[in-house]
Amino acid sequence: MHTVKHWFNDSLIGQGLVVFGLGVGLNALLHRDEHPAMWLVQGAVYTIVVMVAVALQRRRTSRVTGASPGAVAGLLRKIRHHEVPRDPQERAVMRRLVDDQLGRMERGRRWLPYWLGAMGLVAIGLLVLSSAGGSLGFALVFALFVAAFCAWILWTRRRALNLYRDMRTALRDHG
Question: Which region holds residue 83: left if phi is over 0, alpha if psi is between -120 and 50, else beta?
């Protein structure tokens, strides 16, 4: 199980299989009346779009850190497990990775309230429209989902910031 988990974390093929499975499953759930071949085609399109975005992100992170995408995935795993590398070169790469991730999160902080506000406006708009003659139950479920999703975004952001700040401190202490 341990190596399968690492394979899905490190491998673009593994991540693509997960995205494809989710895409086909969601299409089957939402579009029951369509032919199953359409589910597969739409799942493949979703997979291509997501995997291009992931590959571009990995390439950008590789370029910033000066390490291969596989090495970056290993360093991110070490950051999640609070492991400081013993090799000075690996520590330098990790330091660049941590600085890059913190910088990106700090730059994104400016837009976060606007994104959360827009999601809230969509939920409130759906509630208002549904109260005028639609399904209020669906609107309430959607509003609760949006609220839970916003709370999850804030929680994961705070957790990631703490993780990267702790790793920055640990790297500073190890020289």
Answer: beta
E-state strands within 86-127: none
pLDDT digits (tens, 9 = 90+) for 32-91: 899 999 999 999 999 999 999 988 988 898 898 888 887 888 888 899 989 999 989 999
Q: Which of 92, 97, 89 is nearest to 69 (CA)?
A: 97
Residue 147: other Cβ atoms inside 10 A: 13
Its pTM stands at 0.78
Closest C-alpha to 125, from 146, 101, 156, 99? 146
Contact by Cβ (8 Å): 140, 127 = yes
Look-up: residue for tokens 């070169």? 89
